[in-house]
Write a structure and sequence with these properties.
2 copies of one chain form a homodimer.
Chain A: H1 10-13, H2 31-43, H3 57-68, H4 71-74, H5 80-107, H6 113-117, H7 121-129, H8 141-152, H9 161-184, H10 196-218, H11 230-238, H12 255-261, H13 288-316, H14 323-338, H15 349-357, H16 364-380, H17 389-401, H18 406-415, H19 417-432, H20 435-455, E1 459-464, E2 471-473, E3 486-491, H21 497-521, E4 528-532, H22 541-556, E5 560-564, H23 568-576, H24 579-583, E6 588-589, H25 592-605, H26 612-621
Parallel strand pairs in A: 3-4, 4-5, 5-6
Antiparallel strand pairs in A: 1-2, 1-3
Chain lengths: 622, 622
């Protein structure tokens, strides 16, 4: 390893000026400007205003409209070839939307016809404003159940059905307001915390749950649990073995027969489109607060489901959805919906999966569904008096099975065990508890990983690659050799309060271990500790104190600390925190190679305090 | 900047072998071994077993005992010179412990004498096992209030005082078990999430709150709110203006006078040491569950206060406390205490602050306090029938005022605005709500910062420093020049699900902007995008998908993606995720300089697919 002594630092090779030997402190920026920059990077990473630059006023208006109404962008490019696919998928989801809407409205203790109303207006709004091509709009079971639980606790749906109905509209309105505000406040970044692994687990779990729910239709049961977890469903099924319709088991063979045998009674349905309900919104006490509370809670849950579902299918088809736009679109469709006799809608998993499987191409399938529902409302409602549940169930199950992505789960296991854990967490949470608990578990495990990464960063020992000025991790490059008298460490994460005491201990332990090793091997004694800061993206005040403490400890042991390549943000903070002053700017180098060269010069000339000129001279004389 | 073309990569200068041109994939490690390593780094960063290596059996036993009983380490080195300081501070805190203990016991609806018992046994245990030199052990207001609220809801302290008392002992026992388990499970890393900024804010807030509480004594009020927030305290004070003892206002002038005027009636106190209460622990239903619940909740809160306080004073005196040891020590003292008529104790802020101010040097001050309390219990309890509260209040207030660290807050504002926000959050939370809410707010803001750092990492454009092979951020080094036809980006954080869609958008936007710039300036067209991965500590499956998508997008636009210096962990994941296969190992370079040299060679020889031999030849011929 001796040949790595006195390595000539590359940066100085061709007579570079003094600036090259110094890690620069970036030019100072006014606080307001840097705050503005970081807010922009945080909330407007897509820079939505960029395309508006240097455009005529008319074009600006058009672009602005296109931003809020993506239909203006893709609509003009819509070709008839796509219509065929959208028509098929739209009609398919309409055939699902009608019975599903009716049963979810019953779950929410609302008149069944509301389920149909809710599949008419909101999909039209979403088709104009949404950025997903696969999301099918409709009501969802969880939100329906929550509405009946929360509002029902205050107003009885049987004794005071009108007030209950009006409160449901009001809650929907506030859910919409809340959802759209999140989007307008650019909080779409919340969506980034739903990872690929979370979604794989979530989809498989949701598919399992939806399949289990279909056992009701398949077995022809009339009583069934409203809970969605595995245990409740299995208990519900096996507690009524005598009620099983074994005929349903041979479903594939005699499909039509069952259209007559298994039926679902839903009561009278009136003809006619959605009545206006804007005047029904309850904006006065005493029930306003429960409506707002219900709105916010169901709104968040519906939003999480809608965006997770939208993201899942976008991932399948390799396009992007914009979280902020989605929030505004879903919020607006609920606000408008609440004025036209609709209750809370979002993008339900089952309906979107059927839409995707039926080959939808654009949001036009939502329009087709809305038109089909409209025609039903105008002419066909009496026909839906009897709904063949078994057909519905078989459509849903076949769509679901394709969504349990074993291969993706195996891939996660192979590449990243932690991601696999997240995926299994989401799956088990959805199957054994509920959709929200599954999401919460997966997000919590994912966040824990981020926190652990920051709380326990790796510190790597660097060695010199033979015949070069490159210093790399000795574990990754086993031929990298250590430099006598100098310990080179790389810190692999930002230095924050959460890791500063760990890093202090870990760095001191590296030094202890190196000294132990030297004692045994009889190498030259340790005199310099070079810290490669290339990977330290940021530092806070705890981190600066940590450096001060390390410096004190190493000073006491006669060791000198040297920094290599701190980034702009870190230099700024170290300068403001007076650590550069304390350490001496001459002990901060641009590259590890230069730091090592300077240390080597000191080691061999035994001078404790380097002067740049002397160093350069020494280097030039090698 | 033309002179940076064809820069000779330094690593190859001296005839380095092929290995130098390839970023190495680290040798594969069995899953169990890598899991073991990362668990060790996470939970045993201090490597507590290291000192046991190569030691005799007897020495091992001694070291083991010293680990759990730090007194065995510092005890033999204890000098008489320290005793004077410890004696003074011990007696000072004893004089505080007696009235404080009595009033907190009353808060908990327990017999007043329990406050004295609790200042006798637990401090002795802590002195042997604790690692803080400044923590003074005793009961705390918040936990006392919680005990009375939680247990009192199930058992009335007036109608069934014996059962209530026994349940309090049982809850204390379970609090101790829970606290010690957290320590034994090595979850001390929770403590790392209390940052310097949090503690500065928390201490200032707590000092403010404690000062406000002393207004009771200063103004000689007999009725006072049990709440600790600013609003409640001020309302309580100003609602009884007629009760104010204006005499107290001139406290400083005629101290002794007030010893006679202002008094506090506390009822009978029996002589004698703690009776054994181990047989009083309630280990059977029906009240076991409430005792366990109370124990866990009060235990966590007491632990948070004790460790935050211990850490604060350790920071003042520049020593470390070990979170895991502290948890075991505090847990043990509560388990033992519950067997000797003590209820929940921890390190109260006010008492520790007085201890610190009185100049304590070691945990011996706790022993002195315990002895003083013991003597009081044996001989002096009747004297404490009248406690001069005004003296107590003035001692506490003077200690508190020194703990509001304006300078630290100003320093935070100057160096790091975000840390300042955390500090103010903690302060406002403590003053306007409660100690726990303040802690929660500060920790939440701190975590949010970590998450934002990961969710919105910076991407930096690198340029070539003149006459060198060093590439650095052009913002930090304005003289760094861009290389025609090549865009060099550095990613500044691990690539996780939380930032992968952001990074994809951001990188594509950099490419767009660079192409726009080139269109205007007429420079040579962009052909290569070099991503410097030095600062990317880790990657998950979402990150790998992100790279695949970027590659697809850039391929479509005729751009080639090149990676420079991915670390060991990243190389391993990219390899397992088949991205290296997809990209081609020849497009991953050890340094940015080598990547740029290869791209330049391609640019000028117009060959789309590099062969290492050709490259080396080309470089050598420059």
């Amino acid at each position: 390893m001796g040949n790595s002594d006195y390595v000539y630092p590359s940066a100085a090779t061709e007579g570079g000026g003094e600036c090259l030997h110094r890690a620069a402190i970036p030019p100072p920026q006014p606080f307001v400007k840097s705050l503005k920059n970081s807010l922009k990077e945080t909330f407007f990473p897509d820079d939505p205003l960029r395309q508006f630059k240097n455009q005529s006023a008319a074009r600006k208006v058009l672009l602005g409209l296109q931003y809020f109404f993506p239909v203006l962008e893709w609509g003009p490019r819509y070709r008839l070839g796509l219509l065929k696919s959208d028509l098929i998928s739209g009609i398919t989801i309409a055939s699902l939307a009608i019975p599903q809407g009716i049963s979810y409205a019953k779950l929410a203790n609302l008149p069944p016809i509301l389920g149909l109303y809710s599949s008419f207006i909101p999909p039209l709004i979403y088709a104009m404003m949404g950025s997903s091509k696969d999301l099918a709009v409709g009501t969802v079971a969880v939100a329906s159940l929550l509405i009946s639980a929360m509002l029902g606790a205050e107003v009885s749906p049987t004794q005071n059905p009108t007030l209950y109905l009006h409160l449901a509209f009001t809650a929907t309105f506030f859910a919409g307001v809340f959802q759209a505000s999140l989007g307008l406040l650019r909080l779409g970044l919340i969506v980034d915390f739903l990872s690929h692994a979370t979604i794989v687990g979530f989809m498989a779990g949701a598919a399992t749950v939806v399949c289990l729910q279909q056992l009701k239709g398949i077995l022809g049961l009339t009583h069934f649990t409203h809970a969605t977890d595995l245990v409740s469903v299995l208990r519900s099924i096996f507690s009524q073995v005598d009620q099983w319709r074994w005929e349903s088991g041979v479903l594939g063979c005699c499909f039509l027969f069952f259209l007559l045998v298994t039926r679902y009674f839903i009561g009278e349905l009136k003809k006619g489109l959605n009545p206006v309900s804007i005047t029904d919104l309850v904006m006065v006490s005493p029930h306003l607060s429960i409506a707002i509370k219900t709105g916010i809670i169901t709104g968040v849950i519906a939003l999480a489901e809608g965006i997770a579902v939208g993201r899942s299918f976008a991932m399948f088809k390799h396009y992007n959805i914009d979280g902020n736009k989605e929030m505004v679109a879903i919020g607006t469709m609920n606000m408008v919906g609440s004025c036209f006799s609709c209750y809370l809608t979002t993008g339900p998993f089952s309906r979107s999966a059927v839409n995707f499987n039926a080959g939808c191409k654009t949001a036009v399938s939502n329009v087709v569904m809305a038109i089909a529902v409209m025609l039903t409302l105008l002419f066909l409602t009496p026909l839906f008096h009897y709904t063949p549940l078994v057909v519905l169930s078989s459509i849903i199950i076949s769509a679901m099975l394709g969504l349990i992505d074993y291969d993706a789960a195996i891939h996660l296991w192979k590449v990243d065990k932690f991601d696999f854990l997240v995926c299994i967490g989401a799956y088990a949470g959805v199957v054994f508890a509920s959709v929200e608990i599954g999401l919460v578990i997966a997000v919590a495990i994912s966040l824990l990983r981020l926190l652990l990464f920051v709380a326990r960063p790796r510190t790597l020992v660097l060695g010199n690659l033979p015949n070069s000025t490159v210093y790399r991790n000795v574990e990754q490059y086993p031929n990298a050799g250590n430099v006598p008298g100098i310990l080179i460490l790389e810190i692999d994460a930002p230095i924050y309060f959460a890791n500063s005491s760990y890093l202090r201990e870990r760095i001191i332990r590296w030094v202890d271990e190196e000294e132990d090793r030297i004692k045994v091997s009889g190498d030259s004694t340790l005199q310099y500790v070079v810290l490669d800061m290339s990977a330290v993206g940021n530092i806070d005040t705890s981190g600066i104190s940590m450096f001060e403490e390390i410096k004190k400890i190493l000073d006491r042991r006669g060791l000198k600390i040297v920094l290599a390549n701190p980034g702009a943000e870190v230099m700024k903070k170290l300068d403001k925190g007076k650590f550069i002053e304390n350490l001496g700017h001459e002990w901060i180098y641009l590259t590890v190679a230069e730091a090592v060269a300077a240390c080597n010069y000191m080691l061999h000339s035994c001078k404790p305090n380097p002067e740049t000129d002397e160093k350069t001279e020494a280097w030039n004389s090698v």
